[in-house]
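User: Sequence for YcxB family protein below. Tokens please.
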Amino acid sequence: MNSPFSFTSRYILDKTHFSECFDESVTIDKSPRAYYKAIGFILVGTALLLTGTNAYASLFLVGLGALEALSVKFKKTWWLWRQMMSKAASNEVKLTIDEQGISSESIYVNSSILWSEITELTVTNRGFLIKNSKGMNYISKRSLDAAAIEFIKSKA
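Assistant: Structure tokens for YcxB family protein:
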């Protein structure tokens, strides 16, 4: 008789974990289309500045366009900085994988995903992308053993 599968692991939400999460889950758009919003802000701000309507609002829009362009250019750095500034950063997470699903517990977040709630499970080079109705989650293979990896693949 097979005993139910259960795996527990602990890891720290550090910069390397967040960097891996970003690399595996985000596709970076390097086309000019990614800068359309920034270009729009700069053009509207410049047009308002040339008409002399409101210099403060015009310069605000130009600055907002520049900030938007920088956030597109440095998307990973911007995202990593925000994650490292969050209260969850540098805290330990307890990851549990069992027959019911995947759950993670930390000081600030307790979440669980049932296997029946998963709409798409994608195997990446360094982990798993899990999509459900609540959003997308990432689990790194660094915190899993071979049995846990095979168990997750069997549930896909």
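The chain has two domains: 6-26+90-155, 32-84.
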